[in-house]
Specification:
Mannose-Binding Protein A, Chain A, 3 helices, 24% strand, three-stranded antiparallel beta sheet, alpha+beta
């Protein structure tokens, strides 16, 4: 676990330095007008939240996400959120089921997401921070292979993570 935290801390530190050096650049609105893209971040105009374009474990570089997507348990995801809040500022968190479902692109091939806005997304489940009310031991995920939500994952299972914050 310490090795994981050191690796994640190092990633976020490098990411923060890159942000400071690169700036956010000009905003770009996607063709559908759903997202406003600003460098490594995206504003979702439907839900009103701001996303990191890359999954946890990746770094935004030259218009794409590089590096390996980390698969984390809920405890590890909570630690990633804490580190992101310390290193990036703001109040980052795991998304709700509805927020993550807004990212699903039903007309896209897998991964079921606009990969020009969210490059490097893996075609597999991503965590939400929301418990399944029918089965409270499980949490919701959104699978970007199928575009469907599932409330069957246990907190100790390892899934991909994308962070969001309120605007």
């Amino acid at each position: 676990m310490r090795r994981f935290i050191r690796t994640l801390s190092g990633f976020i530190c490098v990411f923060s330095l890159w942000l400071a050096a690169a700036g956010t650049g000009l905003a770009q609105t996607t063709s559908e007008g759903t997202y406003v893209v600003r460098g490594d971040r995206v504003i979702d105009l439907r839900s009103g939240v701001e996303w990191l374009r890359c999954s946890v474990g990746q770094l935004y570089q030259d218009g794409t996400c590089v590096g390996e997507v980390l698969r984390l348990s809920q405890d590890e995801a909570a630690e990633a959120v804490r580190i992101a809040n310390d290193e990036l500022g703001g109040i980052w968190r795991l998304p709700t089921r509805e927020e993550l479902e807004y990212l699903v692109c039903t007309s896209c091939d897998a991964p079921k997401i606009d990969d020009t806005v969210f490059p490097g997304t893996v075609s597999e489940p991503y965590w939400t921070g929301q418990k399944n009310w029918i089965s409270p031991k499980n949490l919701w995920s959104v699978n970007f292979m199928t575009g469907h939500s599932y409330g069957r994952f246990f907190p100790y299972q390892r899934l991909a993570v994308r962070l969001v914050r309120d605007r």
